[in-house]
Design a protein that fits this description.
Order of helices and strands: HHHHHHHHHHH
Structural class: mainly alpha
Strand content: under 5%
């Protein structure tokens, strides 16, 4: 029971953290995604930097369009983080129980995180694809969730799944680094808890923010070319030739997209938007983990209260 309860607390707090951080930083996410999705030769690029996206929205009077797809993104973030944190927490505790060890090694931690990430990617890929299409649609012309998913074949809703599975290495690296930093901090002041149901230890908001930023920075730098490739694959717009005429959508494969980026933008194209990605993902991850650490204890108390209420309910009926 304690195993499932802890996993549920981790999942709930992680999902709430994702929901809040996604909403706060969504305009930045839209600007970043539109900038990354553009795949043209350097001298024909529409956006020279991420600020050009914001200026375009302002000039067209479509500032609120920076929030297009927010509902879908929040739904995707909530579900994905719930599944990920539940799976990560559950598999980690299962590993410790079966191995009868008191700590988990880096290799095992990476494997567990990758497994949780793979389950998450498969379950939420259609929502991720729809969200990317909404963000990269023309300002004010974004389609709804169902219309975005119904355009094209069933397999189109899973555009980028292969590279999403590859990118499970990103959260694997991130949460492994975060856990290692967190465990080192807690190791010096661990307390023996004698409560019937002990609550998990939490670090300070500042430490969670700092460790979250550092861990996500490392993970993003290592996996960024794959991140750029995924955005291009899921973009709602087709590529354009050098004279500005629309071209048929490129092959929705990793190899085809990589070749397209290489031919149009060169080696630096694989790192286009890295600074914007770093800013957005580091802030999102840091906020998520900071909120998660603070929500964890509250959620734990509520879960215990609910559990005790359910256990004592039959006794109340006797009165």
């Amino acid at each position: 029971m304690a195993l499932d309860m802890e996993s549920l607390v981790e999942a709930t707090s992680g999902a709430v953290g994702a929901l809040v951080s996604t909403t706060i930083l969504y305009p930045l996410d839209t600007c970043k995604t539109r900038y990354q999705a553009e795949n043209r030769a350097h001298h024909h690029q529409r956006y020279r930097n991420i600020s050009d996206v914001l200026l375009e929205a302002i000039s067209k009077g479509q500032v609120l369009s920076l929030y297009q797809g927010l509902g879908t993104k929040n739904l995707q973030s909530f579900i994905s983080q719930f599944i990920y944190f539940y799976g990560y927490s559950f598999f980690k505790r299962l590993y410790l129980r079966e191995s009868k060890s008191k700590s988990i090694g880096t290799a095992a931690n990476l494997l567990i995180a990758a497994a949780a990430g793979a389950c998450t990617a498969i379950a939420t890929q259609p929502l991720d694809t729809a969200s990317s299409r909404m963000q990269t649609s023309d300002f004010g012309k974004s389609k709804g969730l169902w219309q975005s998913l119904s355009d094209g074949s069933f397999s189109d809703a899973f555009d980028g799944l292969g590279i999403s599975l590859l990118l499970t290495a990103n959260p694997s690296i991130q949460y492994t680094v975060f856990d290692q930093l967190k465990n080192r901090l807690l190791k010096s002041n661990m307390k023996n808890q004698t409560d019937e149901v002990s609550s998990p230890e939490a670090i300070s908001a500042f430490s969670a923010f700092a460790y979250g930023a550092v861990s996500k920075c490392i993970a993003t730098c290592l996996t960024y070319p794959a991140i750029r490739c995924k955005v291009v694959i899921q973009s709602a717009k087709s590529d354009e030739s050098e004279d500005g005429k629309p071209q048929p959508r490129p092959r929705k494969s990793i190899s085809g997209t990589l070749c397209s980026i290489w031919e149009r933008e060169g080696i630096l194209g694989f790192f286009k938007g890295l600074q914007a990605q770093m800013l957005k993902t580091v802030l999102t991850s840091a906020l998520l983990l900071m909120i998660k650490e603070k929500v964890t204890k509250t959620t734990w108390v509520l879960m215990i209260a609910l559990r005790r209420f359910m256990l004592t309910r039959p006794n109340l009926k006797s009165f």
